[in-house]
Request: fold
Amino acid sequence: MEALFVWTLVGLAAGLLVHRSRSAAAIAAAAALLLSTAAGHALWAARAHRRDRSLAALRATVPQPIFDRGYASSDACGACHPTEYATWHRSYHRTMTQTASASTVRASFAGETLTDGDGKRYHLRTSGDELWVDISGVGARRIGMMTGSHHMQAFWLPGGRGNEEIEFPFTYLFDDQRWVSRRDVFLVGREYSKDPSVWNRICVECHVTGGQPRVEPRTGVPESRAAELGIACEACHGPAARHVAANASPFRRTSLHASGAADPTIVNPARLAPARASEVCGQCHGIGCPPDGWMQDGIRFRPGETLGASKQILELASLGASACRAQIAADASFAPSRYWSDGMVRVSGREYNGLIESPCYQRGTMTCLSCHSMHDSDPNWQLSRGSDGNAACTQCHRAIGDKLEAHTHHAAGSTGSTCYNCHMPHTTYGLLRAMRSHQISVPRVQSTLATGRPNACNLCHLDRTLAWTAAALRRWYGTPEPRLTDEQRTVAAALLDGTRGEAGVRALTAWSLGWTAAQAASARDWMAPLLVELLGDEYPAVRYIAYRSLRTLPGFADFTFDYVAPEEARFAAQSEARARAAKLLPAAASRRAELLFDGDGRFAGGELERLEAERRDDDEMFLAE
Amino acid sequence: MSERRDTSAPDYALRHVRVGWTALFLFAALGLALEALHAFKAPWYLGVAGESRRLLFTLAHAHGVALGLVNLAFAATAHLLPRRAHPAASLALIVATILIPGGFFLGGLFAHGGDPGLGAILIPPGALFLLVALALLVRASR
Reply:
């Protein structure tokens, strides 16, 4: 049909040329017009054929968007809400899941060859807009989908059954501009088994909009689908087909604009009651127990509904009573890989759990939207304008804001007077870094003793002991001082956490040692020996974080260390770092006994090694971020 | 120049008056249709996937109307031009009036995502015909 229209126009033009003027020039012009059209048509058809063939091949293996169940797609939203569409479009929610293409990939596909632990080689390349990997002993495979575009990017290969997508064993780190083993981007012990993930069984729940795994119960073959790949408008506003159809009428739109009333055909989380509003985020940012049958139909929750009716949020205290109790009981690592022992969430991406455990939510009206915004924020942390400082808290806690120094005992404007630093410390782990806890809490040494979780004070005052913190909290707030061991009284908390803590604690400590606020509060000149020791940690994630923090210290900006290099190379680099650290003499103020300096001002490296050798908590672990 | 004026100018003028008003009518009507698509929020036109279609239809509307006016200008000034300028310039201008807005319109009608449809291949030859017509008219008016 398209070609018929085009050739009709061309025929009309050529006919005019020949009919009106029978000159040689007109005939030549008509011939040239016909020839150029024929050539253009041939090129266009060849390109269209290549594009259609590529799309058809991708469609056969990758879950496709299907607009049923009332979904309309973000395309339809963008037509009337261009600003909201644009702010969403630049967010990392949109690019959480994408079909793989050379034009949108952020990772490098410049002919790299990667080798996995079994010696299998993976050669990366592009072909037109397609991403391909040549796998030794297997052959060429086209990459189907990509996950993430913020800190790292993961990839998925067709599994060959339905539209099953299997985890590609390497991930690209943007900061480092390098590929690493998928395993090496998680905090996971060496002995911990981790099979390749199947996208259709895990990611489809939250990394798309309206995802349905549609795993055939008998064969296990998935024919997954989603309303849209990535987390799009309808994930938060609900299916919009009815809204789009209703608002095709200009009279209805005008009437709604004039009245300012809510449109009952769509959900606006900002207009929901606090609990309902937070559940919109909680459907994905919470540790959940998917209901029976979700492997076929997906999660039935729609924004504005009660989340618990479709997907139970799992809190540590109620795990045993949950519908998932049998599955949890069979997995001894379920709770430790997600919660601190007092129930506080310890992994990123599960902020809703933290929120609902917070007094500001339980006794106030705090929601995710109190601090975050999709449409009026920087894409990095999506903090709404003005919420990156104390205003986020003082919008309710005005009295504290008015007498800030009396409450914080730190200078106003200092990091010690920043509400977040004390009440939302970096005790959550994910994406190879520490993140803020979203459970609003009060610093307590008792919590550290009970759970091993570093307290907010010592995450900034890394050079101080637990006893120092306990004394300050008693003096300022009347918090009773707990009973402490000799080491807890005499050795800086960061040194104890970095040597004796479990892997998750070591990761948090290593990150804090590179945190600007902590370096300003604690001085940096004593940190190198501890970070150098952490370069030798058995957990790649801890080594990675320690190296990044070490690079921020004077004398180490040019130091190179590959956290996944063979052991010998890592040991050699660590020795070099140790030698560099030995040459750096800290200021007298840092040569204190709690930082392991002896009476002569010399660093007692042997003491650090002793603490590490006597590590009490060396269990294998995995953090399910 | 007056002694070389074309005695057949009224024929050409009439032809371009017809083409000009027809183009103006068609592409003004297209403009009205596009406004209606906006008013009723037609997803096919206003959706993000329809961005190329929207641009191409707008260009078809703008070029169609502009070329209609150019045809009317040609008709109004034909009597001032020498006879030898008329046949080729007239023909080239009419062909351009068919190909340029027609190419934009068909390119938009069959747009595939960000790519225009096959009709877009009519635009470059149309532009060439327009340039030829204008060059002939510039030369003739000196």
Q: What stands out?
A: Chain A has a mean pLDDT of 94.
